[in-house]
Amino acid sequence: MPAAGCVTIELTMLGLGTLTRVARELRQDLTAAQERDPAARGIGRGEILLTYGGVQALLMHRVAHALNDSGIPFLPHAVANASRVMTGIEIHPAAEIGDALFIDHGAGVVIGETAAIGDHVTLYQGVTLGGTGFARGKRHPTVEDDVIIGSGAKLLGPITVGRASKVGANSVVIHDVPANSTVVGNPGHPVRVEGKKPGGPDADWAHLPDPVADAIRALSRRVAELEKLLAEATGKRPEPTAEVRPLRNVRGSDPASG
Prior knowledge:
Elements lengths: L2 H34 L8 H7 L1 H17 L5 H13 L2 E2 L4 E2 L4 E2 L6 E2 L4 E2 L4 E2 L4 E3 L11 E2 L4 E2 L4 E3 L3 E2 L4 E2 L4 E2 L7 E4 L4 E5 L17 H24 L24
Parallel strand pairs: 1-4, 2-5, 3-6, 4-7, 5-8, 6-9, 7-10, 8-11, 9-12, 10-13, 12-14
Antiparallel strand pairs: 14-15
């Protein structure tokens, strides 16, 4: 049988059930955009579908994923490539994506072949769920339900990001993240675990704690204490070899406070 005939039969085998599932997932994706993007709350669902690249990329991925699961050659990757060209978002057809994912802005988002994303997850622009090495098998992250991943964050390797966790903007995460945690930095460091929340609202990436700055601040205090003890013991105050300025909070006021 010619290849075109095989593709026609396989497309027919997708059936009404698959189309119904894709339509249901699209409705959930549109609802997620309306609920999580303040700019989308005043516009209709049709306008969101026509103008939001993240929603368009998800719709095309869900079609490509259904084709891929059915074993249809060429078409899944063709649809995925068309989505990448149109939206700037690259999602491998084999990636597993749950319900109500919201990709905010979306440019530069990359989701690898063996990545798995749970329900009600939010990704901001420039997020990478990438692999490490060239071995086959599971090599991309698993992101559980209700996770938020900030702009430019890179999650690399077969790690698991636990439920309801948050990854700060531009973090590089290469180890598992416990549930209900907040991770920031390069490499990523947990700064909140099991309900101990940082100051500022959950969506305020500018006010997440900085573990590196905290460590430097602690060292600065320790050096000052040692210099004081040395001065008391010798009667001489050591002269600094360079100007030392105290660390201060330059993040400004809380933008979510009104």
